[in-house]
Design goal:
alpha/beta, 11 strands, 26% strand, TusA-like_sf, Sulfurtransferase TusA family protein, TusA-like, Rhodanese-like_dom_sf
């Protein structure tokens, strides 16, 4: 699986602190939600980039190693905190674990989904929902999940506006998911 990123930067051959310096500079030009791929060879960049992202409030998604190159994925976030969503129909992560019917719709970006998603969840990134809504059945319950409940709130509203009435926003989302996860690279 090729993972899509909005922007790629090359930090191969550079040692600390240069991968972080280049990452910080690239993040300034991204908008919230965009994905940055940092290509590095410095093994210390794994811990360095994860710690830097956490310290400034961005999401460190994960790293893939291919032929001695580390591909780090980060998502630009403003101060993305878990907040009460405005879509009326919500369920908790715990309640979702006990359900046996319906479909779990993961509206995070492809790279976020690849690094860990609920087993059996269908992926349609929020930005593709309008053009891929036909893949969903209106009569089936749809449990929409993202990282914190913000994107899933928007997706649930879109689905409800399109005539889907069995739509539920899952709160607080993947940030606190305690169930089984699957990775897909």
């Amino acid at each position: 699986m090729t993972i899509k990123a909005d922007v790629q930067i090359d930090a191969k051959g550079l040692a600390c602190p240069m991968p972080i310096v280049r990452t910080k500079k690239a993040m300034v030009d991204l908008v919230d939600g965009q994905i940055l791929e940092v290509q590095a060879t410095d093994r210390g960049s794994i811990a360095d980039l994860a710690a830097w992202a956490q310290s400034v409030g961005h999401q460190y998604i994960g790293t893939i190693e291919q032929e001695d190159v580390l591909y780090h994925y980060l998502r630009k976030c403003s101060n993305e905190e878990i907040v009460e969503a405005s879509f009326a129909q919500t369920i908790t992560n715990e309640h979702l674990l006990s359900l046996r019917d319906g479909i779990i719709l993961d509206v995070r970006e492809e790279v976020e989904y690849a690094f860990g998603h609920i087993v059996g969840a269908k992926t349609i990134p929020l930005g593709e929902l309008d053009t891929r809504m036909h893949e969903l059945k209106k009569e089936q319950p749809i449990y929409v999940i993202c990282r914190t409940g913000k994107r899933s709130d928007l997706a649930a509203k879109k689905l409800a506006s399109a005539g889907f009435d069995k739509v539920y926003n899952v709160l607080p989302g993947m940030v606190e998911w305690q169930g089984e996860l699957e990775k897909k690279f």
